[in-house]
Design goal:
Elements: H1 9-23, H2 41-49, E1 58-61, H3 62-71, E2 81-96, H4 104-113, E3 119-122, H5 129-140, E4 149-152, H6 156-164, E5 170-174, H7 175-183, E6 187-192, E7 216-223, H8 229-243, H9 246-255, E8 258-263, H10 264-284
Parallel strand pairs: 3-4, 3-5
Antiparallel strand pairs: 1-7, 2-5, 2-6, 2-7, 2-8
Helix pairs in contact: 3-10
Protein name: C4-dicarboxylate ABC transporter substrate-binding protein
Pfam family, one: TctC
Family: Belongs to the UPF0065 (bug) family.
Length: 289
């Protein structure tokens, strides 16, 4: 189950994962379906309803952590059965190829001059990775996050149309969602939020361009609550085998993902820490409900 629309980062990851599992002969016939809504909260509630179902799992990540913090939902990731963290990736600032912002300095200057008029598009809701990355960058350049004109689109496909249609000044998105458009020259990348440069991306890091921000989104898999130990371990074993498969390593390279494998109890601890961390960040930025 994917908690976002087709074409989103979660969707791409889930379909690449399912295809690799099938190609490797690790697991055949995995169905991937989308249940968007509430930044992932709708799918999270569905997962909770499927208590004990060992044939269902959900692709998730920082966006769902942020959504549960921002919305205050009573259903949380801590109730779910942790399977594994898979990958992480940075966010990237993208503009149209003919945008007047030729580099990050030009964009930052315009943003500081008139924050209310600088409309930024993201494919995630409040608390999601595109929103969080935007707010962290704003804070780093001295723009108050509460003044940011962030416009939320329903996933990467809708956001791409908005960028190309010049509905927004720039887009903030995960690298994998627009890697092809950047490579083809349809979009220009102004900066990436990783600590180190990304080999396949012709853009500086935020820090090297003078903005002290490092941010990485991550993705993983959780299953319904109260899963039998045998079912949980069976799914974890599939993902452990996938992690060692060369085609999965190739997919990570192709999409600009970094290996972030973490399984079982360690992943559960990580999710709790991330939930506490981002709830604190949202509160500190004045953005938590």
């Amino acid at each position: 189950m994917v908690p976002n629309p087709p074409g989103s980062g979660y969707d791409i990851t889930a379909r690449v994962l399912a295809n690799t599992l099938d190609t490797a002969g690790i697991a055949r016939g995995i169905e991937v379906f989308n249940l968007p809504g509430g930044g992932g909260v709708v799918a999270l509630r569905r997962l909770a309803y499927e208590r004990g179902n060992g044939r269902l799992a959900m692709m998730m990540g920082l966006g769902v952590v942020g959504a549960q913090s921002a919305t205050g939902t009573q259903v949380t990731l801590q109730e779910m059965t942790p399977i594994a963290r898979l990958v992480q990736e940075p966010a990237v600032i993208v503009v149209t190829r003919d945008s007047p912002y030729r580099d990050l300095d030009a964009l930052v200057s315009a943003w500081r001059a008139d924050p209310a008029e600088m409309v930024i598009g993201g494919g995630s809701s409040i608390g999601g990775p595109d929103h969080l990355a935007t707010m962290l960058v704003a804070d780093a350049i001295g723009v108050a996050p509460v003044t940011v004109a962030y416009r939320r689109y329903d996933g990467g496909g809708d956001l791409l149309a908005a960028i190309l249609g010049r509905e927004v000044a720039f887009g903030m998105s995960g690298l994998s969602e627009y890697a092809n458009q950047i490579a083809e020259g349809q979009l220009r990348a102004l900066a990436v939020t990783s600590a180190e440069p990304v080999a396949q991306l012709p853009a500086p890091t935020m820090r090297s361009a003078g903005v002290d921000t490092v941010f990485n989104n991550w993705r993983g898999i959780v299953a319904p609550p109260d899963l039998a130990d045998s079912d949980a371990e069976s799914i974890r074993a599939l993902i452990a085998r996938l992690h060692e498969y060369p085609a999965w390593a190739s997919a990570r390279t192709r999409f600009g993902w970094t290996d972030a494998y973490l399984s079982g109890t360690a992943f559960k601890t990580f999710m709790r820490e991330e939930s506490d961390r981002w709830a604190s960040v949202l509160a500190g930025l004045g953005l938590r409900r």
